[in-house]
Write a structure and sequence with these properties.
129 residues; 2 helices; mainly beta; eight-stranded antiparallel sheet
Length: 129
Amino acid sequence: MTGHVDYSPELDGAPDPGEVVWAWVTYDDDPSQGKDRPVLLIGFDGETLLGLQLSSQDHDRDAADEARYGRYWLDVGAGAWDSQRRPSEVRLDRLLRLDAKEVRREGAVLDQDMFESVIRAAREHHDLA
């Protein structure tokens, strides 16, 4: 099993599943580089947080090309994690493992119905309980 999914946001300063937080995410093609980006926390594997990165880029336009490279995205709408409130997409195929100390700030809480839609779609790519 890859991890345990849990929707338990609690805006208390600690990172919780269901929250969109910010963390350093390495690039696929060059793990020595990366970018500070929003991450949807979805659960735990032991003490390790599990998350999925968000992007404000529209991958619907090039969905076939993205899928050819094994990248799958789901629209999650706009939220307080983006200061400009741009629509976001969550990447389903890349499960991030984060230490709570690597998460730098809280962004927002994702709606529970949308969270459950993300989890259903992510289960096509990951073994999530």
